[in-house]
Amino acid sequence: EDQVTQSPEALRLQEGESSSLNCSYTVSGLRGLFWYRQDPGKGPEFLFTLYSAGEEKEKERLKATLTKKESFLHITAPKPEDSATYLCAVHFPSGNTGKLIFGQGTTLQVKP
Amino acid sequence: EAGVAQSPRYKIIEKRQSVAFWCNPISGHATLYWYQQILGQGPKLLIQFQNNGVVDDSQLPKDRFSAERLKGVDSTLKIQPAKLEDSAVYLCASSLPLGEQFFGPGTRLTVL
């Protein structure tokens, strides 16, 4: 069964304390892996797409990496405004357009 | 560029009542998605449209949920009759074919 698992479920960091979020998947025919940020009461906001093992993308304090079975979202020197739920989603073939399966998310709290 | 619009933002109904949600996707996005997000979980795909046609509705509870996309633009999702377990946030997203999905703010449904 196609599955996406994120860990940890929740993470508390002090401002400036770097860490990583994990997303592991068991999906055949991966077309891409997406990272989203979701603030309370809002829809997910697109961050990154990764397509192949070894690929990396960066945006401000965030860096996403991809291997054959998992992805990491590294947060360097986080600030309180980075507090949010981070969702990963795997895109795999389904019909002509593909399909996304989301993980359950990691809720990050950064304390000043 | 305008984002995905959804209405209403909040809805409270009694069980066995009916409810409808509306979505207006980003202009030019042929693919439209409805997701259900239960508190503490990642979004789960309910139905995916490509223009007017349904691409995937395998996880849509068809005995009570229905959706349509008229003229390949706006879409409505209906629940009739609602159950307590339908309490969730209903997210609409749109994309170009195989592109990243952009989400609306969601409709928070509470069934009492």
Question: How is this structure best described in words?
Answer:
The complex is a heterodimer of chains A (112) and B (112). Chain A is an all-beta fold and 112 residues long. Chain A is built from no helices and 11 strands. Chain A has strands at 3-7, 10-14, 19-26, 32-38, 45-50, 56-59, 62-66, 70-75, 84-92, 99-102, 106-111. In chain A, the strands form 2 sheets. In chain A, strands 2, 4, 5, 9, 10 and 11 form a 6-stranded mixed sheet that branches. With 112 residues, chain B is mostly beta strands. Chain B is 0% helix and 50% strand. The model of chain B has no long low-confidence stretch (mean pLDDT 94). Chain B has strands at residues 5-7, 10-13, 19-24, 31-37, 44-50, 53-56, 65-69, 75-79, 88-95, 102-103, 107-111. The interface between A and B is medium-sized, with 27 and 25 residues.
Short account of what is shown:
Chain A is mainly β and 112 residues long. Chain A contains no helices and 11 strands.
Alpha-carbon distance between the two ends of chain B? 37 Å
* Helix-residue proportion of chain A: under 10%
Q: Between the first and last Cα atoms of chain A, what is the distance in angstroms?
A: 41 Å
Overall body shape of chain A:
globular
Specify the number of helices of chain B. 0
Pattern of helices and strands of chain A:
EEEEEEEEEEE
The percentage of residues in β strands of chain B lies in over 45%
Largest sheet of chain B: 7 strands, mixed
Q: How much strand of chain A?
A: over 45%
Largest interface: A-B, 27 and 25 residues
The shape of chain B, in one word, is: globular
**Rg value of chain B:** 13 Å
Pattern of helices and strands of chain B: EEEEEEEEEEE
Oligomer state of the chains in this structure: heterodimer
Using only C-alpha atoms, the radius of gyration of chain A works out to 14 Å
Q: Are there runs of chain B of 5+ residues with pLDDT below 50, and where?
A: none
